[in-house]
Design goal:
Two copies of one chain form a homodimer.
Chain A: H1 4-26, H2 33-39, H3 44-51, H4 54-78, H5 83-98, H6 101-115, H7 117-126, H8 128-141, H9 150-170, H10 174-192
Chain A binds a DNA duplex (30 and 30 nucleotides) through residues 1-4, 7-8, 11, 32-34, 42-46, 48-50, 53-54.
Chain lengths: 194, 194
DNA sequence: GCATTCACATACCGTGGGTATGTGAACGAC
DNA sequence: GTCGTTCACATACCCACGGTATGTGAATGC
């Protein structure tokens, strides 16, 4: 006798994992929900029971992936005390983690069009972009860079790093590209110092 | 008696226009090819005859939209003689033109996932991103900013502006947001000056 | 022990992309 | 001018897949 709550949690987790694998490998549209379910030994009905729709499962997968990246960025930043070092460490952590093909396909490519850009942006701001904005506010408060509106700058840098992550993954030597992107980004940030 | 070549060109053009309208309004997946065709008084068969697939029509629409933006950016840049002024004018032109909802939905949101990021990037580099790279090379050659690898910086700035364009269109006052984004971008670029 | 809830399974429908084939008008050769 | 060919579509059809409505049997609460 397995309790219902445990069974429910197990199935939900298995759907999330299998969905993430397939969404990352094939892209949202090419994924067929029935195969996701069959892949873990259940039927389509289970997926609809848990997530309501194909987009619902995808949304949950996106949220988990974003949270994971956001947590990694936050952890990298918190290893430093100086706000400036936190900002730079966070950026580097994002570029390294963001070049993961699973994250790219799901969060950077498919999510904005499947969920709509507004919802994607809200989710993004709830995870990694929020940290970026806070880090920028901190370096301004510390006087390291000139005070200026945070939001436009955040979106510029967020977009820059998202695109850089996609670029990095497509290069022959991603590790070297992370450094190249990071150098260019550092030059941009350094230029802001007052 | 209308000649076949003329008829062909006319139908092709009408499909491109109607497709662009619908792709922009409803998004790629929500568009049904038969309705695009019916919208201009032909059937699905015509669309397949001309473009081979739904993605084929979309690809052609994307190419035209990118060319249009690229031409606008180039024109804005060529109004100036100084490489630095050309760079700044091109960026502003892109931000203003890129906040057009048609361009956003088609080129920035749907195209990367429908056509694949690699093909999207190739098309992007063939139009607007190429101009950005050339402008950056020019200001380095002129000694206005320090010499550095062009490609990472181009991708960072290209991504920054794409994201900024999406952000701008979602704000209550897009015209003001263009200025805000442009100020932030100018600060970043100014920081690179040697 | 009995009614209820719940976590799915099963059966079914509609939509829409793709394809195979038909057709009539323009076209080139004579 | 006419005759066979080409071509720009139209027509008819297939089927994959998302969604829904309903069934079912085991856990749960009283």
């Amino acid at each position: 006798m397995t309790t219902r709550a445990a069974q429910r949690a197990e199935t939900r987790r298995a759907l999330l994992d299998e969905g993430r694998r397939r969404f990352a490998r094939d892209g949202y549209h090419a994924v067929v929900l029935e195969e996701v379910a069959r892949g873990i030994g259940v039927t389509k009905g289970a997926a609809y029971h848990h997530f309501g729709s194909k987009a619902g499962l995808f949304r949950a997968v996106v949220a988990e992936a974003q949270d994971r990246i956001g947590a990694g960025v936050a952890a990298a930043a918190e290893a430093h005390d100086d706000p400036w070092d936190q900002l730079v460490a966070g950026c580097r952590a994002f570029l390294a983690a963001g070049s993961d093909p699973e994250f790219q396909r799901i969060v950077l490519l498919d999510a904005p069009t499947v969920l709509g850009w507004n919802e994607w942006r809200e989710m993004d701001e709830a995870s990694s972009a929020a940290h970026l904005g806070e880090a920028l506010s901190a370096v301004m408060a510390a006087g390291t860079i000139a005070r200026q509106p945070v939001e436009p700058l955040t979106r510029l840098l967020s977009g820059a790093m998202n695109e850089a992550a996609l670029w990095i993954a497509g290069t022959p030597d991603p590790a070297a590209s992370v450094n190249a992107a990071m150098e260019a980004l550092t030059r941009l940030l350094d230029g802001l110092r007052s």
